[in-house]
Amino acid sequence: MSLEHAILGFLEREPMTGYDLKTRCFDDAAGHLWTADQAQVYRTLERLSERGLARSRVFPQRGKPDRKVYRITTKGRAALDGWLHSAQPLAPVRDPFLVRFALADGLSDEEIAALLAEAREEYQSRLDTLRADAAAPVPTCAGADDRGSELYRMTLGAAISATRTVIDWIDDATERIRQGLPVAKQRPTSEGV
Amino acid sequence: MSLEHAILGFLEREPMTGYDLKTRCFDDAAGHLWTADQAQVYRTLERLSERGLARSRVFPQRGKPDRKVYRITTKGRAALDGWLHSAQPLAPVRDPFLVRFALADGLSDEEIAALLAEAREEYQSRLDTLRADAAAPVPTCAGADDRGSELYRMTLGAAISATRTVIDWIDDATERIRQGLPVAKQRPTSEGV
DNA sequence: GCGTTTTATGGGACTTGTCCTATACTCGCT
DNA sequence: AGCGAGTATAGGACAAGTCCCATAAAACGC
Known about the structure:
homodimer, 193 residues, Arc Repressor Mutant, subunit A, 2 domains, two-stranded antiparallel sheet, 2 strands, elongated, DNA-binding
C-alpha cells in the first residue's frame, strides 16, 4: 500500500506524531494526492513500529495528551528507498462519477446535464483550492527543502491540469447534450425471466 | 459503493450472469472507469439478490457449469434510479504515482527522470488501449442502444483526455528535471531520537 | 495425448479504508 | 457556567477490495 510508504516518506523528512501526519501532511499538503483516515494513520504507525521501520518515543505534555513522536529507522529508510526504486503498477482507474454518467442513459437529457453541472461545481471548487495552494508557500511537511518543494509544486501542477481537463470535458459533454442525445430505445420494464 | 450500482446498471440493460458481468462488462467495457474483482462481483450479486434488488434463475448447461442469470427487479430499478438522481460526493484523490513522485526528493535527478519515463510508458499503453477501444464498435454491454453508446463513447473520451493530460504533464516534468532540480539540503542520516 | 484456455461458480483469508466512539485536559466564546 | 474547538491517542465494527484456491467439463493448440 501507498499510505505506509507515504508515511515513511514524511517521517524521513521530519519525525512526527500521528496527529501531525494526519493534520499537517495529509489534510493540508498531500490531500490532493492521497487522503488518509486518522484511525488508519495511527494503525499504520503502530505496524511500522512493530516491523522496525519506525521507532516512537513519548514526550509528556502538560494539559495536552502526550505526544508520541515517530522517527524513521535505518531499516525504514531502506524500505522507503526500495519502494522509490521499484517499479510500481499503475493504479487501476476508478471513477464513480464517470460510471454514473455512463449508466445514466435512463435519465433525460436535462437530468444528465444537471448531473454534469453538479460535478462541474465540485471540480471547480477543487480547482480553486488547488490554485490557492499553488499560490501559497509550500507547507513544511510537503517540502523539506527546495528540492522537495519543487517536486511538491510539480505534483500540485499535475493535480491542477488533471482537474482542468475534467472540467473542460464536462463543458464539452454539456454542449454535446445541449445538441440532443439520441433517444433511448423502448426497453421492457418487467416480464418473466 | 459504486460497484453495486454499476452492476444494477448493467443488469438494467440486459440480464446477465456474474461471469458475463466480469468479462464482458468490467474487463472489456467499463474497465476504463471501474475495475472489479471477480469474487466481489459474485458476492455483490448475492447481496443484491438478498436485498431483493435482483433475482436469479439457474439455466442448466451441458458440459459447462450452470448459468445463474441475474435480472434486475422493480425494487432494483428504483434503487438504481435513486442513485442516478442523488448527489454523489466527489471521489477523493488517490494517486500512488504522484505520491511517489512527491516523496522522491531523496533520489537523483536521473532516478526521478527514470521514474517518470517508466510511468509514461504505462500511461502511453493505456492510451493506446483506450484509442483502440474508441475506434472499435461499442460493446453490447456498454451501450444497449444509441443513447447508451453515445454516453459510453463520451466517457471513453474523458478517459483519453485524462490520460493524455497525465502524459503531457510527465513530459513537462521530464523537461523540468532535465534543466536540473534544486539540490537537496544535507539531512542527518541517523542520530538519537 | 497433454497442457492450457474458456466457461462458470463460489469460498477463505486477508488488506485497506471508513465511521463512530472514548478519553482527557485547555482555551476561548457566549 | 457551560459548550464547542483544539490537541492527542486509540479501539471496535464494518465495508470494500484483492488474492488465492477448488471444482468441472469441453475445446483448442502443439
